[in-house]
Amino acid sequence: MAKVIRKTTGAPPAQNANKEMSFLDHLEELRMRIIRSLMAAVAMTIVLFLVHKWFFNYIIFGPTHEWFPTYRIICRISESMCFGPPEFSSQAVGFGESFIISIKAAFVMGVVLAMPYILYQFWQFIRPGLYPKEQKGLKGVVFVCSALFLTGVLFGYFIIAPFAINFLMGYTIPGVENIPTISSYINYMIMFTLPAGLIFELPVLVYFLAKIGLVTAAFMRQYRRHSIIVILILAAVMTPPDVVTQMLIGIPLYLLYEISILIAKRVEKKAQEEENT
Hints:
The protein is mostly helical. The chain is 70% helix and 1% strand. The protein has 2 domains: 195 residues, no CATH class; 77 residues, no CATH class. It has a two-stranded antiparallel ribbon with strand order 1-2. It starts with a strand and ends with a helix.
């Protein structure tokens, strides 16, 4: 069977022939990394499931309570913008739906909490295949990716969710009472948070694309106007048709785009300096 050379930390692969790993060995290591990641997520899931009453009351249904920080902060900033959560009750209509939803919500949150460890396992898998110089350039990538992802999730939870819930529950049809199912509520909460966490990884994505030459700062500046349209479309998809909510997510996305331009410019400058030396 053909051998796949695995680069080690100390030197290029040509100097580490004795450290060879076969393709199946790489698959086995990847399997172990995935198992460890799942175990971390499952561990978090079990903990959250054991405290499901607290978890649902203070985390899942947090944006539906008046004590939620977003409402209190906005009311302190401006009385004209002050608003509170709409009064509504949710229902479980399917047999065993409450149990299934509890597991689902706990698992999703478990994955979010375990994301730093999952990213660490992914990094440990690909790190030996990099040269020391590349490893040094990517130092702290796990921390940056984890911080951006969790920041995006928190942004969706504290900013998007309260405004979206207020709009969606405030929109009524004559003769129809809004009594959402717990399943629909959980699905919308996932939609408000996880996509935001992934979108906040844009600077990291641009960094890697700039490293391989697929994206340049000049290219991103040239299509800045087009990016604004794409950002508005993303904001419209991620949020209800509420202008205020769309602006709240559109502005941070645009700032991330501008930050990505600076990152691409820095990568290009560094690459040019290395070529001149």
